[in-house]
Amino acid sequence: MSTTQSSPDELKSGTGLTTADIVFFVLAGVAPMGVVVAILAVSIARGTGAGVPGAYVVAGAILALFSAGYIKMSRRITNVGGFYTFAQEGLGRRAGGATAMVAVVAYNAATVGIFGGLVYYGSDVASQLFGVSVPWPAVAVVCLIAVAVLSYFEVTASAKVLAVALAAEVLILLAFNVAVLVRLGFHGFSMHVFAPAAVFGGGFGISLMLAFGSFVGFEATSLYGEEARDPRRSVPRATYLSLAVITVFYVLISWAAISAYGVGKAQQAAQADTENFIFNASTQYLGKAVTDMMAILVVTSLFAAFLAFHCNTARYHVALARDGLLPRFLARINSRHHSPVAASAAQLVVVIVFTVGFGVAGQHPYLSMGISFYGLGVLGIVVLQAIAATSIVAYFLRNRLTESVVTSIVAPALAVVGFAVALVLMVANYPTLTGSTVTWINSLPWALPVAAVLGAVLAGRRRGEPAESATDPRSRRDSPRAPETCPTPSR
After folding, report:
1. Which of 51, 215, 244, 390 is deepest in the core (most CB within 10 A)?
2. pLDDT band of 462, cuts 50, 70, 90
3. Do residues 392 and 418 touch, judged by C-beta distance below 8 A?
């Protein structure tokens, strides 16, 4: 047991998170089973159809360019603030404040959206298992209590829970891939899915948007830097490994799903029965029993994603509270488990407020709240990635740190271009993502510029305070009392 005394806003440094632990957090947050059942089917139905695997390759390539500079920056800045810290270091205090508030909106929105899907599918699967109607509010209460308990303890406890859930869903999806391959053979996997005409055909904007949505959360590796056993090695490794695994995984599973129906028939099948597109293929190739198991794993996948996004969001609460952009009490840390109880509790309150609000309004927890808020979260996180890429270029140019021009300047600059194109397509297709004709739901993206303005104003009011540089030797990163990054609830 460490004898180091912790300050009221200090997370436990060096909790022992390894590269594998960080990767588990990231991959669980990506929610493989949830993505395959919900997002992949929609992408095939409303996007490019057979060209969806190629869209994943494009998204992965843009994020790989971003990651090159992201890793360079994370080696110089180990801080819970993530994108917020990068923006402040690269573009200044006001840009940092604007980025901070966009992050708060984006991560909270994504967390609420995932929760909407979790309670809906949880209710549906529980009703099937027990043969009696299980209302989704009851599922919501159980899930909230479970996450509150897990987030109270050290971050490593949550990492192990995520690892178990992740392993189960990945194994069953790999079994599906193998079943399709055994039945059809290699010739059944047509290379047409990577042909430019298929990838960049009609609906490419929707498929690219949903592909980026499938990657959301991979960038969270830097948020665990202060708690990692060896952040300068663990964070870069976890970032590259997470991105590579996610890209290959979704390319293969989307290719297998399309091949299961046939390149020329997959889109039509997805349009005819989007909700059961994967389940129908699973029943055909693996049998009903495996499909039933898959349905259960959809729920565990979404729960793991909810837990992971909850932890990531709370980290931003801690970082902003430390810097005066959110109420200071949110930075308080539990003295025993070094977990940010206050920040975690505040995030759960946000989830509860929106869930109750949508419920009272008679809105569907998944089709209304889930999709619209997750869409807002995806859009906001891509905005954050674009800002971070711009900040990285500015930081290395301003400080004349050009030891590696390709990875620190050229790669992130190219990523900025890719993100800009993606954002235009995402905003244009946001109503398609929500599937709603309600004006206020399709106007939710306006919350992002409003949050940015608010953050810039709040940051400007702090001009009289000395700005603490995350790269300064005296910063939290190197201080023996360095505040740490895991937002679990604090006392």
Report:
1. 51
2. low
3. no
- Cα–Cα distance, 62 to 66 (Å, whole number): 6
Amino acid at 394: A
**What are residue 17's DSSP bridge partners?**
228
Which residues make Cβ contacts (< 8 Å) with residue 312, sequence separation at least 6?
29, 107, 217, 220, 223, 487
CA 374/CA 162 separation, integer angstroms: 20
- Return the amino acid letter for 329: F
Dmax over Cα atoms in the chain, in whole Å? 68
* Interhelix angle 155-184/19-30, nearest 10 degrees: 60
Q: How far apart are the first and last CA of the chain?
A: 20
Q: Where are the domains of the chain?
A: 19-460
Q: Which of 204, 194, 180, 207 is nearest to 262 (CA)?
A: 180
The alpha carbon of 30 is separated from its chain's Cα centroid by a whole number of angstroms, namely 6
From the list 274, 295, 302, the residue with the least C-alpha distance to 435 is: 274
The burial class, CB within 10 Å (0-12 / 13-18 / 19+), for 131 is exposed
Q: Give the length of the chain.
A: 491
Q: Are 340 and 151 in contact (CB under 8 A)?
A: no
3-class secondary structure, 228:
strand
Please name the amino acid found at residue 450. Answer: V
395, 83 contact by CB (below 8 A): no
Distance (Å, whole) CA 11 – CA 45: 45
Q: Is 145 exposed, middle or buried (0-12, 13-18, 19+ CB in 10 A)?
A: exposed
Token pair for 84? 């917020």
At 183, the amino acid letter reads R
Tell me which of 142-156, 319-333, 467-481 is least confident: 467-481
Task: Check residues 484 and 353 and name the one with the higher pLDDT.
Answer: 353
| Whether 305 contacts 313, CB under 8 Å | no
CA distance 172 to 179: 10
Q: Are 86 and 77 in contact (CB under 8 A)?
A: yes
Predicted TM-score (pTM) of this structure: 0.81
Q: Report the alpha-carbon distance of residue 378 to residue 107 in Å, rounded.
A: 9
Three-state secondary structure call for residue 193:
helix
Cα→Cα distances 179→172, 188, 244, 275, 333, Å? 10, 12, 23, 21, 48
Instruction: Give the residue among 362, 355, 363 at the shortest CA–CA distance from 137.
Output: 355
Q: Is the dihedral of CA 484, 351, 386, 240 positive or negative?
A: positive
> What is the per-residue pLDDT for 29?
59
